[in-house]
Design goal:
- The protein has 2 domains: 107 residues, no CATH class; 127 residues, 3-Layer(aba) Sandwich (Rossmann fold), CATH 3.40.50.
- It has 11 helices and 11 strands.
- The strands form 3 sheets. Strands 8-7-9-10-11 form a 5-stranded parallel beta sheet, sandwiched between helices. A 4-stranded mixed beta sheet has the order 3-4-6-5, sandwiched between helices. It has a two-stranded antiparallel sheet with strand order 1-2.
- Helix 10 links the parallel strand 10 and strand 11.
- Helix 4 packs across helix 5.
- The two termini are 19 Å apart.
């Protein structure tokens, strides 16, 4: 249930097109509904502008499907992250309109046209091909929030000429999400090249001394360039969401 739907519902009551009792029936599960294993937050979109996002990690396919079907009643677009292909094969037939975004490891339920809400373009840049799943999670999240997204892949600092060749594209962006593992140097380089906010996403990609992404995380937190904000390891969703909020046009 979002602000648009509540506004329409109140207008229908005011015009006599719907009774108070009918409106109450539609609102009875606001702000949340207890499914026993989850309290589904129907109030999230009203507060933040986007419905509750389902984290698939640790949930069974049946739980993911049940939560998505409960959220579907709002008619909004939905997202479930960190869903592996095996779980997705079970979930998709159970949730009308659901599709699997393999590269992002996410399930999307698109029930209405995505309305553009961004002031400009978000660029999602990844250091290496191994970082793509996290980068795609960030890009997909930003797109569902109503942003134009451009992807720039495999431009890590080991071949920095590849990044420099994209400088004009980076300069045109309103916000840049930079996804990198190993030593996590790419966000600092990008932030030193352009006057744009950079949301840095460390990944767990790297050899032993990367400590599952901790080395990249610490490198990004210690970036010498100004304007770098860092989210948690492998948190493409958080990076894409933060970039979407930064880029959101006032309404």
């Amino acid at each position: 249930m979002d602000a648009e739907r509540i506004r329409a519902l109140l207008a229908e009551v005011a015009k006599g097109e719907r009774t108070v009792e009918q409106a109450l029936a539609e609102l009875e599960h606001l702000p949340f509904r207890d499914l026993g294993f989850a309290n589904v937050d129907h109030h999230r979109a009203l507060r933040t502008g986007f419905p509750e996002v389902v984290l698939g990690l640790g949930k069974s396919a049946e739980q993911i499907a049940a939560i998505l079907n409960e959220l579907r009643v709002s008619g909004a677009n939905l997202l479930a992250t960190r869903v592996d292909a095996d779980k997705a094969r079970i979930v998709l037939p159970s949730v009308p309109g659901a599709r699997y975004a393999d590269a992002a490891r996410a399930i999307v339920v698109e029930q209405r046209p995505i309305v553009e809400r961004g002031r400009g373009t978000i660029v999602v840049a990844s250091a290496g091909t191994s970082d793509l799943p996290v980068a795609e999670e960030a890009a997909l999240t930003a797109e569902l929030l109503g942003n134009r997204v451009e992807r720039v892949h495999d431009v890590g600092v080991a071949g920095i000429h590849r990044l420099i060749a994209r400088r004009e594209q980076l300069t045109r962006a309103a916000v840049i999400v930079v996804v990198a593992g190993m030593e996590g140097a790419l966000p600092s380089v990008v932030a030193g090249m352009v006057a744009r906010p950079v949301v840095a996403v460390p990944t767990s990609i790297g050899y032993g001394a990367s400590f599952g992404g901790i080395a990249a995380l610490l490198g990004m937190l210690n970036a010498c360039a100004a304007g770098v904000t860092v989210v948690n390891i492998d948190n493409g969703f958080g990076g894409g969401y933060a970039a979407g909020l930064i880029n959101r046009r006032d309404e």
